[in-house]
Amino acid sequence: MSWRTSVAGEARAVAELPEIVGKQRPRATVRGGHARIYTPRKTRVFEECVRKAWREQVGEEWAGFTGSVTVTVSVTRELAKSNPKRWAGRQDVQKPDVDNVLKAVLDALNGLAYADDAHITRELAEKMPRTPHGSGNQISIHCIYYTETFEKE
Asked: Is-above-0.70 flag for pTM?
């Protein structure tokens, strides 16, 4: 007796973004003695852009998927205009941290690319070398979906 895993499908999307940001901590304001918790604007805009790109390119085909999922996220950021052109191709070792960007992407796709991010069994995030100014920022997302069946021997 054993479990057999097979690929159910895969999906890819590329999001062009004005700015790459990592997941920021929730903020709170107090008005009239009541605390209001909210997501910072930069994080909210980033997640909305990722969701929009996924919907346009993939749709909601995998929204209710409850099997295991592997997710690969590649981040490509352009150089700032003030950086020397010769820096194009250098590794991106500046903020935001790749784990914070990954968290923002996974949260954005929750309920859209999978039923819940608890179904993610493997994740890979990488920051690609910087590109010249004017080339844009992008996030490339690749999800592979798996199903399991139990086989008696």
From this structure: yes
